[in-house]
Write a structure and sequence with these properties.
The complex is a heterodimer of chains A (562) and B (199). Chain A has 562 residues and is an alpha/beta fold. Chain A has 11 helices and 20 strands. Helix content of chain A is 22%, strand content 20%. Chain B has 199 residues and is mainly α. The chains are: A alpha/beta (562), B mainly alpha (199).
Amino acid sequence: MTMNEAFDAIVVGSGVTGGLAAKELTERGLRVVMIERGPMIEHGDGYQTEFLAPWELRFRGFGSQKEKEQVYPVQSKGGAFDEWTKAYFVNDALHPYQTDGPTPFQWRRGYQLGGRSLTWARHCYRWSDLDFTANANDGHGVDWPIRYSDLAPWYEHVEEFVGVSGSAEGLPQLPDGKFQPPMLLNAVERHMKNVVEAAHPDRRLIIGRVANLTQKKEGRGRCLYRNICARGCSYGAYFSTQSATLPAARATGRLTLLTDTVVERIDYDDAQKRVSGVTVRKGADGASEKISARLVFVCAGSVNSVAVLLRSTSPAFPKGLGNNHDLVGRYFMDHATAVSAVAMVPGFDARGYFGNRPNNLIIPRFRNVHRSDAEFLRGYGFQGGASRTAWLRGAKQAGIGAEMKRQLHRAGPWKILLRAYAECLPRADNRVSLDHGKVDGQGLPQVRISFSYGANERALLADAESEALAMLRLIKADVLSHSAEPEPGGSAVHEMGGARMGRSPKSSVLNANNQVHEIPNLFVTDGAAMSSTACQNPTLTYMALTARASAYAAELLKEGQL
Amino acid sequence: MAKRRDIGTRSTALRDRRRVIAGLACLPLVNSGMASNPGSHAVVKKIGDADRAQFLEAICEVVVPATESPGAVEAGVPAYLAMMWHEGLLPSNLDNLIHEMDRLAGQRLVGAPYARKSAIISAVDAEAFGAASSGRLSEDLRVVWRSVKRQILIGYYTSEVGASKELRYELVPRRYDADILLEDDAPAFSSDWRALMVS
């Protein structure tokens, strides 16, 4: 069976990059079909738990521990998962995968329209040439085929559309962008900023740069400081497919959207040396169907983008598209992360805040920035924040009755948390592959993720722990816990690599324009394209790469080169 | 359902302390008697749903009592705990804690005077969190108590009464004031999700 409508482009996946590719390509005149394996979630009406109070939920927002263990053993370990948001995460029991390594890789994902754009943490940072030259400078990984100057105008392009609030700081390692007004630090965070920056002139403690609007724009409302973003935001105050890219793509009249449709494979025409479209399956037991187009954008999320390339075998590519050099799936990465330190901060009992800020403080990378100043390679940054503690503190201490109730009536003591995100070096053995002996709920080969961290990641996190403790000592905080142990891979939910960009088909899968080297009408523009991880959140860079590749692809199409 | 007791904060706290002191003073007598003559303890009765429900209501009444605001019983926490029990989400050895508290009371805890219930629960709570150490409460039962207490607090502070009358619930604050001075009796926000996450 073949879908008769002719398309210029197929976009596989509807998350941050899929939605953006659909927007960019349709706005450039292309007829696009965007394919999402999960169900439709409409903006607003689809956010069924958004306004529910805890007392309206069976388990009061905490969820059922039994359900977490049996249905969501992986997804429930993520910070955005709760009883309100669980519908935006996959049922682990229905979507199994294999993992090996010292600790099981935590593959956090959501199969619905919008993918993880509904539940992401929204931090948006530009990378700098410190990052784009890192592989070339220390020899780990393949040299990026682009530099900051190639991406700078596209960062600006997407920032203007997305709406990123933040402060300009003039930091070379974290270039400034086009920002809406920043959110504010609270009393404890501002105190720590003053103390840390006075003691360390090379460090900055600043508010995060996030895709939450502090000023309304183009049909989207400003943030109302609820900090329940992952339930979905009817006001459109944070960037998601639903709030931003889908309306823009639909407005062109050139978008076709397919949900509940999984892409089995990308079809390759050996004679034309081009991909011709995709084979999809609708529903759990639907028949296969072919959809044709002149180009394909793969934006399914790093792991699934790799998986669909590997499933797409043909005489010319017997090991999967773009995989004749055994590179697809390799050099898979995720930031190494640990809660470096948690502490109580005395002296601010009379100070508080009103409203819930959906944002963190950050301390951008300060190691190995201007010169090599550490035993390890590359760097790390901190994210975290200070807040009052809540009534739940009563469950961790002795006390009952009216006196306990009186104590819990007031905001609890201040607590501060610093989490490190450390750069992960690319390694060939960290890889995504297919386990043909096992199939998932849709009859497709299961994914196998082989992953471990190395000595450099551990050294980075050890230094982060030490520095976090030292900075907390400066504000006379009482440390409760600290760690340098990396959480299992996947915990940062910053999976990158598997179809890395580079200069040569012998050492990379994609070229400088995100095209598969040997297949000019096949693009991969999500995290799979990354050749290194930097230490800052990568999503803005995926978006800039997607917008840039979309413009390039549209131009090639106009010129008749595809 | 227990009647709401409208007692001022200070007088409630004083009365509460007196109850705890009175209860604690009695405990050694019961326990020393039990220790010297264990055979005097009646055959352990199997606990049914009704017994368990009475027990859960009794501890709710003591752990989060009614003061100027309604307490856990008025907030419907016993029903929440019963639901959690039937879902298998309370410790399976909850009944052992009921037996132990009955043993400490020298009778069924639910039938004991409020002051005695309060003293026993307070003593168990102190043991469970390491604030007191008599060695009488097994580690298993300490875990059970900590779990049950956590669920009582969840049941109360996420109820409409607990979240929006005892505390303040503001789902849509509309603004962020980063640094404000808090008055002494200002209620905490039950809708401070970050605070909840780090607590």
